[in-house]
Amino acid sequence: MTPGKSYLTSEEIRPLAERSNLMGGWLVLHCWGTIALAVVLFGIWPNPVTFVLAVMIIGSRQLGLAILMHEAAHNALFKSRRWNDIAGEWLCGRPILAELAAYRHYHLTHHRFTQTDKDPDLVLSSKFPTSRASLRRKFTRDLTGQTGVKQLLGQVMMSLRFAGDQDAIQAAASDFAQSFKAPHLWQSLPIFVGVMVGMGIIGDWWWGLAFWLLPYLTWFQFVLRVRNIAEHGATEQSENPLQNVRTTLANPIARLFVAPYWVNYHLEHHMVMHVPCWKLKPMHRLLMSKGLGAQMRVAPGYGHALAEAGWQR
């Protein structure tokens, strides 16, 4: 049974679960439009501040593309499975070296066995709470590109090692799906490079390196880790849907740089996983109106979520 049905009626869930092709298209357009505006910002006012802002905004929108691919994996971005597959794969997943099919298989397993021994994401959340020093080391590796380079090299090595061996690739695919990585790297790499080339054509030759590869290797890795920690880090390892996952309230700055497209409402997403992301906030309000707030694991901000995971230790 869907966990949400223990707290919401079918009549309450039905309108929340309605999908919209118009909204799905707008979200994809908004994500790519924000990326374009960040590049334009630097192009009009080229200086160190706009450069850093562009890298951070684009890195957060790379996470945004991952989130929209996640929506498509749940068939929640568009009304039809076909459009979810097309947009989720080619407009959202491939440009960030992710692969919809591999991610969908792994992620639905995560929903089925959340915070249990069969959860493929447990390896990510079981490390928390940890120490402040450990978190600082992880964030430093992310922001200096060490994590991104290591993971990219891992993809390359797996693709070379298992070239032509589809069974071996699929066996290793879940390790990459956890971090939105495509097991069939060579099928996604042309799209990733194509975005870089496009940026170089509209600007200077180095723009693709600076505004696609650099955000991918740095800020995207950082916000991806923050997101993973906030969602399940230092939560209850149980089947209680109100305590084995965390919703983190996000102000406009956090939504711009860390938590795009309502990804912060993760408890609500686990309640009814096919509710589109843009309806998770209304769902949160509905749950709160039922007096469930005291039972729900809700952090008032990402600083508080990180504190629970060990930042204050």
UniProtKB/TrEMBL annotation:
A GO term, aspect molecular function: oxidoreductase activity
CDD domains: Rhizobitoxine-FADS-like (cd03510)
EC number: 1.14.19.-
TM regions (residue ranges): 21-45, 51-73, 185-203
Record keywords, A-Z: Membrane, Oxidoreductase, Transmembrane, Transmembrane helix
Oxidoreductase as UniProt keyword: yes
Superkingdom of source: Bacteria
Pfam families: FA_desaturase
Fatty acid desaturase domain: residues covered: 49-289
Listed PANTHER family: SPHINGOLIPID DELTA 4 DESATURASE/C-4 HYDROXYLASE PROTEIN DES2 (PTHR12879), SPHINGOLIPID DELTA(4)-DESATURASE DES1 (PTHR12879:SF8)
Name assigned to this protein: Fatty acid desaturase family protein
